[in-house]
Amino acid sequence: MNRLERAVLVGVCRHRFERIEVDEHLEELGLLADSAGAVVVGSLVQERGPAHPGTLLRRGKVEELACLARERQADLVIFDEDLSPSQVKNLEKDVEAKILDRSGLILDIFARRARTREARTQVELAQLRYLLPRLTRQWSHLSRQVGGIGQRGVGETQLEIDRRLIRRRISRLASDLQEIEKERDERRKRRSAVPRVALIGYANAGKSTIMNLLTRAGTRVENRLFVTLDPLVRRCERGGRSPFLVVDTVGFIRKLPHHLVASFRSTLEEAAGADLLVHVIDASSAALADQMRSTRVALEDLGHADDPCLLAFNKIDRAPAGLVDRLATEYPDAVFLSAIDPSQADLLETRLRAGLLAARRADNLVPTAASIRTAWALARGSES
Q1: Which sign, positive or negative, has the C-alpha torsion 183, 187, 188, 190?
Q2: 183 in a domain, yes or no?
Q3: Global pTM exceeds 0.85
């Protein structure tokens, strides 16, 4: 059995009022490290002050990090910031441990979890786009200086060959992904007659648990980030009522690498084709507001910020005292539930049917709060 890698986490606090946020981000980085199969053995935060362009950390902090890594026998150091290739090289030399940034860690998790052809294609495409600018000149056996009569053309460096091969592979993967998207569009058209509800939200908010609650799909559920990478579509047809489709999607996260946002656009388009979005929120999270904001920004980036959407606050059984009452006052049209409680299924289904009815009556325009309340009342009345 392979030994788990021992990781030290590193954050950078640029302003005094950012420290709480930096600590929250490091806690999430620890969850990402756990999802990747590492055990966190320590953390370090650089407080206010100028960052060193060559290492991101000031000289004294680099030495402190090296001592901490040796003391904790860490073979991996993970930064909560994106690092340049030169910064990684300098840090690995000084710290004598493997250096990884947040984007690289997320890409590694996606590579481990991808199962379908589409997910594997998307992950490889994202990895190569991440790798291309990070190729360094590690080859000296070929040089532009090699030349002379009969030798012209031999001067292409191994670095340039690697770049050319990677660009060619990127082009091929992008083409493959377009074909996969066409196949997905065809499947979506065949399902268009059935209403669709898409579960979106921050990673580990409980989307897969809600999917199981509604459809008995038996979806894998873990208290880890990015357990779901491939979109899953299942029918909800409880109690003999007309069926609708439920789509479980990959979760959003802070600082999601833009390579992944681009590569996973087609996967998230499963949500875009839905009649109703359900924004699932972890009511027990201390970073609730930040997570809601991250999801809204991601939807804006995808061009779907104005789609019909129902807020679903999950894990209310673990929420701090009084928080649910405050949220109910601020978001009167939201639904509040604990998805691990089977008795919550009827409440959630009723609200989803109300949202679908309001969205369809508005011809796919954004339903107003009043229209959702009216549709909810109609849906409840039809079941009584």
Answers
A1: positive
A2: no
A3: no
